[in-house]
Specification:
Structural class: alpha/beta
Distance between the termini: 33 Å
Radius of gyration: 21 Å
Number of domains: 2
Helix content: 40-55%
Mean pLDDT: 85
Oligomer: single chain
Largest sheet: 5 strands, mixed
Low-confidence stretches: 225-230
Amino acid sequence: MQEIDHAIKTVFSLNPNCFLDLTFGSQRKTKLKEIADPQINVPELRADKAVIVEDQGKEYCIIYEAMLQPDQSELPTFALKALGNQYMSRQPTLVVIVYLEKRKYASFPNYFENRLGDLATQFVCNKILLWEHKDRILNGELKELAPFLPLLYERPDPGLIEVQKSLLAQTPDPKVRADLTATAILVDIRAFGAEIVLTKFSRKELKMLKETSIVQEWLTESQQEGKREGKREGKLSLLEVILAQKLGALSPELMRKLQKLNDAQLNRLGLALHRINSRKALQAWLQNGASGNDNK
C-alpha cells in the first residue's frame, strides 16, 4: 500500500480540486481555499491529504483517507485525526474515505461504534467507491485520477496503460504531466508487474520517473532513521524499472541478487542510484554497498 499511498498523495498535492470534484461534483459550490496543514504533531495522526474549503462563507477542513482494502481497525484513527484537527484549528472537520479496489470484498465500512447496553458512541465518515466514478475518469472529467484506473477493474488489461497515457497527455503543465505519468507507472507496476511496464512506456518516460517528486519523496524518506518496516515489493519493482532504463535489460543473475535485498538494502540502493551507471557498477554495489560497506 505504501507505493499507492505515495501515488495518492502526489495526485492530491498536484490537483486537490480533482478530489473535491470527485466528492461534490464538477458543478459544486464548495470552493477550495488551500491545502490544509493540520496542526497534529503526532506522526501517526498526521492528515497529509487535507484541504480547507469554503461553503456559504464558512470554512471547513476535509481529510481524505485512501484505502485499498477495507480495514475496520483504521476507522478510530481517522476519527482521532478529525477530532484532533478540529480541536486544534477550531474548524469543522470531515473525513472522506476513498476506496480504491472493489475486488470481492463484502463491505466497505465508513463508521464504527462503541456500545455498552443502551449507551453508544458512533463516528461516521463519508466514503467514495472510486470504481463508481470510472466513467468520469475515462471521459476526462477526472483525468488526474487516470493513474488509478488499473485498480478499478477486477482483472485489469495492460491496454489500460495506453488509456492512462492518452488521458494524461491532456495535462497542459509538463511538470504536472510528468508527475502524473510517474504516478501511473508506480500503480501499473503493482497491477501488471515491472516487465510489462517496461514494454509499455518509452525510455524517455521511464527516464523522467526518477526525477519526479513521487520518487524523490521516497528517496528522501529512505534516509530517515527508524523508518517503518514497509512492504518491499513495490520498492523493488520501482528500482528494477529505473535500473533497466539506465542500464538496459538486467541479467537473471543481477535480478536474483536484487530480489534478495531486504528493505534497508533497497533504501541504500535507492540513494546510490545516481552513481550506478553501468552493470559493472551495479555488480560492485551489490558486493559492497548492499552490506553497508559502500563508502564512496
